[in-house]
Amino acid sequence: MSGSVVPKAAAPRRRRRVVILLIVLGILIAAGLTAYVGRQALAAKKSMEQAQDQLQVFRSALGKADQDLPALYAPLRASADEAASKTGGPVWAAYEHVWWIGPNLKAFRQTTELVDALVRDGVGPLATGANGVGIDNLKPKNGRIDIEPIKRLAPVTTEVNEAIQAANTAAADIDTTRVVPQLSAPVEKLQDQLSELAPISQELSATLPLLPGILGGEGTRHYLLIFQNNAEERASGGNPASMAMLVVDDGKITLGRQASSASFPHPYKKAPYVPHGKRNSDWDKIYTERSIKFVANLTMTPDFPTTAKMATAMWQDRFGGQVDGVISFDPVALAYLLNVTGPIKLADETTLTPGNAVPYLLSEVYAKYPDGETQDKVFASAAQTIFSAVTSGKGDPRAYLAQLKPIVAEQRLKVWSARTEEQSVLLTTPVGTMLPADNESATVLGVYNKADSTSKMSYYMDEQIKVSTNTCEATPTHTVTATVVNTLPKDQIDALPEYVRAHQKHIPPGGDRQLVQVYGPVGGKLKSVTIDGKPVVWGTSANYKKNTVADATGADIRRPAAHGTMYGRPVGTVPITIPADSSVTVKAVFTGSAEDSATVRVSHTPKVREVPVKMKAATCR
To answer: How far is 390 from 457, CA to CA, in rounded Å?
Structure first.
């Protein structure tokens, strides 16, 4: 018998050994690949941490002329690129489909990629364009702002903005629902930061290129300044107690002619400017002709472009000359600026500080100087002195930016340009107007006050606003409740200066009368309004001479309630009387459209003190 015979059971055993070997080999390969991905992830994490530290160093160097930004950018760029390269390739891509670890790897890769792109496309141009430009280069010196650094930075903002918008879009696409907290927390923080930064970047890239021209780099500009007095409220702030012409030539800023409300006809026999067009179709019905014939009433509308056009026409009618734009602010904004400039001394030797500026200019001045002419001189002195402090270079530009934030948020600064290109940009910013033209980005409701007692009692008027929104139905409903509070204690009524008191009939001592304007969403409808729970009876016009409803709310005091449409919005204006140490509540109900933005906001008159706003949304079932 030659050769050997293989037992029948040997072949299956050999096949089993091959299978086991393949399984072991697969496990080893999988383990190796897993280890590889793990090493790549750790390396990428390390590079991301380095990039974060390097970015912080870069940010700290921005605005310092002696820093070498390109040198600081180079290692940052290398770290970001290294992190992104570690999270690419077919192995990493394959592991992104593994059930548990996949979502984490995908989120991490997306983050490294967007950071790499943001550093390359945003920080890179900034490192070149901002190199050698210090924050002090933007500071006024001897009344002049150097325009050249702004010209250098303007084109850079466009590239930076494009990078930020792309990063914001990429960040929004990162899904963190199945990502571990150690990774989801920083990713979500990055998402929030980019979401907040994107609109700011958008505004900056649109406005900075216009600044050289605005600052007189392309010819002399003339801007009319309006100083609104919150002690006599109007929709956009207050009675424009003081005005001045600002002249800007190649960055050099000078204050020209100054005027007060007493400088203008009282009233005009023929209004220099009459608001017209579809947006102002119910102007006479809501605001009456008093708004266009008295300079003190040109701020009755929350639409600042209309106010600016009326102010321009009145100024030119009285003084002539060119008006390239209108800028408005108030004593509360002035107090914010004093946090940067430090105390200033007025012509009457009064020292204004952030703590006493508002009470002095809006209350104490009336007791100290009973005549209006002297009061106007004080207001003019305040405007001129703060202007001199700012343009002389007092304070850190960063500090001004910090104070500018609440000034803009509280709608105390407003700007209009006679140039179409500049105005179109301004209308996309918070300083352009108080009510946006549509409900696309936010559904904005309005609550505005107009003092109607020819007094300075608005200094004592506080307000609390509540908004309840129900978007659960096909037609959303917005309920706006505004409570006006007279904070004057009854035991202080007798001490009120005569100039401050309301002297009209039907107003009790220490009381005030106001017209409250309530605006609904664009395209919406006004369903009802109540005053302290009592339904308002609408008149046909707020002008008592044109009203035909005898029992309209307020008709007995020649202030009939009226409603209509302004700026494409439903609006109602109602009169209220608020005795000392009491309050009156106005409640309005509006309906909107299902297409309106779910983000609901409130615009209101900038008052002497903060207006608390409470928002409540219905819970849909």
So the answer is: 31
- Please tell me what DSSP assigns to residue 115: H
Query: In the structure encoding, which two tokens stand for residue 398, read together?
Result: 């960063």
Q: How far apart are CA 184 and CA 173, in angstroms?
A: 13
Of 496, 477, 474, the C-alpha closest to 486 is 496
Q: Residue 215: left (phi > 0), alpha (psi -120 to 50), or beta?
A: alpha
Q: Which of 420, 386, 383 is nearest to 245 (CA)?
A: 383
Reading the block at residue 128, the tokens are 């070149």
From residue 582, alpha-carbon distances to 123, 360, 426, 461, 462 in Å are 56, 24, 40, 10, 11
User: What SS3 state is found at 117?
Assistant: helix
**Residue 241 backbone dihedrals phi, psi, to 5 degrees:** -65, -30
Other CB atoms within 10 Å distance of the CB of residue 127: 23
Q: What is the pTM of this model?
A: 0.88
pLDDT tens digits for range 360-398: 999 999 999 988 889 988 988 998 899 899 988 888 888
**CA atoms of 549 and 594, how far apart (whole Å):** 34
Structure confidence by residue, pLDDT tens digits, 18-33? 544 444 444 444 444 4
Say if residues 292 and 271 touch (Cβ distance below 8 Å): yes
Taking the CB of residue 473, how many other CB atoms lie within 10 A of it?
A: 11
Report helix, strand or coil for 471. Answer: coil
For residue 503, give the 3-state DSSP assignment.
Answer: coil
